[in-house]
Design brief:
The chain is α+β, with helices and mostly antiparallel strands. The chain is built from six helices and ten strands; from the N terminus they run E-H-H-H-E-E-E-E-H-E-H-H-E-E-E-E. The protein is globular and about 50 Å long. It starts with 6 loop residues before the first strand and ends in a 12-residue tail after the last strand.
Length: 277
């Protein structure tokens, strides 16, 4: 088994025109950022890249990770992923920006056995043309009680994030050569199931705890079920934790599960924080 190693690359924002306007320059600058933010799922993919390189398909069939985005990463900037405490089955990683700041970190593991997989509940599915309620604490409390609608998707060339680098040839071989779904897409499903249930403005993907169960090949159909696990406020921002499960179709075989933490409503620009850290 290969031991994962450090690597460096150039950050890439694949969705500058996203409905999530924090990835566009104008709105991001209004909130005090230097420009549109590279999506948190892409930043997480940089931390997981060493696992995909070292462990290949095994990583996509049983790997797990806890990834945290701590501060912004910007399109076109160089980054370094420092891998520490690495072994044949685990490592820790830190993403360092050009100013020497640690922008994100992860704990990554290739466990000897799999935990019990999620089981499909059979949640009603989204109608993509249906109106969405505006995101609010009240709306999310209602969804916590009633449940979110399930999202259908497909992995392939028309997926929303097909590469976590501007040059796809720089991705790990299992993504570049075998064209198995990359972590930015898979973690992105946790965002999209939230964003298809609610009308969101500018919001931030901050943290994921994720577990793989099988690889996703081109053309694979997927269904994503999610539920609201927690809601809270911190420093004037509104947070949501989602429990998400991804299943292959047909057959409902488990693909992955994750817990997402996101800020669904940012504190208004210039408004003082109401809570201490």
């Amino acid at each position: 088994m290969v031991i994962p190693g450090s690597w460096s690359g150039e950050a890439f924002n694949p969705v500058p025109e996203s409905e999530n306007r924090i990835h566009g320059d104008d709105v991001a600058r209004a909130y005090g950022f230097r420009g549109g933010l590279v999506p948190g799922v892409v930043v997480s993919a940089y931390l997981l890249h060493p696992a995909a390189v070292a462990w290949g398909r095994q990583w996509l069939e049983r790997g797990r990770a806890h990834a945290v985005v701590r501060s912004p990463v910007y399109d076109g900037e160089r980054f370094q992923v420092d891998v520490q405490n690495a072994s044949e089955t685990a490592y820790e990683a830190r993403l360092i920006d050009p100013r020497g700041e640690c922008c994100a970190s992860a704990e990554v593991e290739l466990p000897a056995s799999l935990p019990a997989p999620p089981v499909r509940r059979g949640d009603p599915e989204l109608d993509r043309g249906a109106p969405r309620p505006l995101a609010s604490r009240e709306t999310l409390e209602r969804l916590r009680a009633t449940g979110l609608l399930a999202l259908r998707g497909r992995w392939g060339e028309r997926a929303e994030i097909t590469s976590y680098l501007s040059d796809p040839n720089g991705m790990a071989p299992i993504h570049r050569d075998q064209r198995l779904a990359n972590p930015a897409f898979l973690l992105g499903l946790t965002n999209w199931v939230l964003g298809r249930n609610l009308k969101l403005d500018a919001w931030l993907h901050l943290e994921t705890w994720s577990q793989h169960y099988r690889a996703v090949a081109p053309g694979d159909e997927l269904v994503v079920e999610a539920s609201v696990a927690d809601l809270f406020e911190k420093k004037g921002h509104q947070f949501v934790d989602l429990e998400v499960a991804i299943f292959g179709q047909p057959g409902d075989e488990p693909v992955a599960c994750a817990r997402l933490r996101a800020i669904y409503a940012l504190r208004a620009p210039g408004r003082p924080a109401t809570h201490a850290v």
